[in-house]
Amino acid sequence: MASLKEMRNQIASVKATQKITKAMQMVAAAKLRRSQEAAESGRPYAARMAAVIANLASGVSGDGAPKLLVGTGQDQKQLLIVATSDRGLAGGFNSGIVRAAKAKIDELQGQGKDVRVITLGKKALAQLKRLMGDKIVGSYIAGNKPSLDTAKEIGEQVAAMFEAGQVDVVTLMYSRYKSVVQQIPTAKQLIPAAVGGDAPTIDLKGAAYEYEPDAEGILETLLPMNVNVQIFSAMLENQAGFYAAQMAAMDNATRNAGDMISGMTIKYNRTRQAQITKELIEIISGAEAL
Fold it and tell me: What predicted TM-score, i.e. pTM, was given to this entire model?
């Protein structure tokens, strides 16, 4: 059995840990507000971009359509961009994204596809390095604050690989922030550009538009920009989700530390009382023996 001094040291250690987890919870809560506002303010821009592309794509077809819109006509070469955070202590936030990415990789490889990966975030690289090995063709640091420069750098690498014929389909894996208690691992296809599904429509109110330059020329400019925007939007969503998950994890850790302190304090008091009782019995027995 541990001595009273050892038990006091253990209680003090848990109390120190509790102070740290409480401080991390408060910091995550403060950063969550800003990150949530950034993620929510970025959604309309990304949605509007998708709507414009969908509207333009409806009038484009044939050989003149940009490759980023229609693809190569094949889906053998798959590229996954897996976005996580750089840090942990956020419950299952990072592992949820990586788990969804691994499921997607297993599905594609089961179909005989050639799968390559770009990681965004240290946790994605750490968890996928052993699985994918040299199939990881790029790795980037997410950083403390989402950076459009990082999104552009990834977009340029993706565009270069697509132009070189190294990939046919590009999919982005990230966590969509829904609420403080719910972040949803999400797969979004970037190339060929997804112009249907949840892309909002633009009501032209019966008007007919003429484009200058033509729709194909506008799409040639917008489609690479859309890749950058979607990656940056995913980074914003990830940051909000990370701080929400970290706040919840640190709150649970603080509560658990409190429970441990209560239990250890009760055990300490009982042990101390038993030791005092034993010493009293020894003193009384010695006095009676005299």
Answer: 0.80
